From TrEMBL:
Domain of life according to the entry: Bacteria
Alphabetical list of InterPro entries matching this protein: Aldose_1/G6P_1-epimerase, Gal_mutarotase_sf_dom, GH-type_carb-bd
Protein name per the record: Aldose 1-epimerase
Gene3D superfamilies listed in its UniProt record: 2.70.98.10
CDD domains per UniProt: Aldose_epim
Length: 300
């Protein structure tokens, strides 16, 4: 597959680097600490480009994870989604998965310095995208690497009088090199757990998830949560290495994914729980009031 141009950000105060590929959906393919890779590479960038198989830190937009059907309500009617059309991809059950921007090439880089990258996508100017998400807006990412922290700011700016649903998220895959997965420790704040059915869709039930701090051992996760506190910190650590993911602002929901047989843990900031675009309960970006969300990955 053709080599796509990448952008490498360098932390002025440490050997930490972050690599982005703007023309592949603004995916972050690497977070490296003096040559030690901290992001799960899974099947690599080629599989993301060809089949939307996620790796690194991809953006899931305009919805994160699955929807429970191939349509969602809008103004008394419905928007119909067709897998294979307009960027829509189905999961193993045919449910729309991870939005429409996987590996999307149309991002415009607006600034690039040594440790900062900004890019935007005029969603409203793309009929193919609007067919699946008919809410004209500009989507902007502002990424900074400084003081051993990668900060990702996302801004959604409506460009008409139509409000824009906020149901997106990111899917960072983290790994702790040189330490067995069973010895990794996962920590979360107090949350509300949202049980899912056999297709990964929240059932509508919920239960208390007290603040958690345990070694992974042979535990697996594919769990959704809400009531994430603003500024809530999730931590993956092992040996002398620690990765903190702070949900600074605009991410009241989360997904944790730690499959068996794969040395990685995904800690996913989400602006709404899975299936919110169909079930409701999401926030919106209002005309004249851009919606800004921020999360930070700090490497200890």
């Amino acid at each position: 597959m053709a080599q796509l141009p990448s952008v490498v950000l360098k932390d002025p105060s440490s050997p930490l680097t972050a690599t982005y590929v703007p023309s592949a959906g603004m995916i972050c393919t690497s977070l490296s600490d003096d040559g030690v890779e901290l992001l799960g590479q899974r099947r690599g960038l080629d599989a993301y480009l060809s089949d939307a198989k996620t790796m690194g830190i991809p953006l899931l937009y305009p919805w994160a994870n699955r929807l429970s059907g191939n349509d969602y309500p809008l103004d008394g009617g419905a928007v119909t989604l067709t897998p294979g059309v307009g960027g829509v991809r189905g999961d193993a059950n045919g449910l729309p998965m991870h939005g429409v921007l996987a590996a999307y090439p149309g991002w415009l880089v607006t600034e690039h310095t040594g440790n900062r990258l900004t890019a935007e996508l005029d969603f409203g100017a793309q009929p193919r995208l609007l067919a699946s998400f008919p809410f004209p807006h500009v989507l902007a990412l502002d990424v900074t690497l400084a003081e051993r922290a990668l900060t990702v700011q996302t801004t959604v700016t409506p460009t008409t009088r139509v409000s824009v649903p906020l149901c997106y998220g990111f899917h960072p895959y983290f790994t702790v090199p040189g330490v067995p997965r069973s010895e990794w420790t996962l920590r979360t704040p107090r949350l509300r757990h949202l049980p899912v059915d056999g297709q990964g869709i929240p059932t509508g039930a919920s239960d208390e998830w007290p603040a958690f701090s345990e070694k992974l051992g042979d535990k697996t996760f594919d769990d959704g949560y809400d009531e994430v506190p603003q500024g809530g910190v999730f931590t993956l650590s092992g040996g002398d290495r620690r990765i903190d993911v702070t949900f600074d602002h605009g991410y009241p929901a989360a997904q944790i994914f730690a499959p068996a047989g794969d040395d990685l843990v995904a800690i996913e900031p989400m602006s709404a729980p899975t299936n919110a675009l169909r079930a409701g309960g999401y926030r919106t970006a209002e005309p004249g009031r851009p919606a800004v969300s921020v999360f930070t990955v700090r490497v200890g």
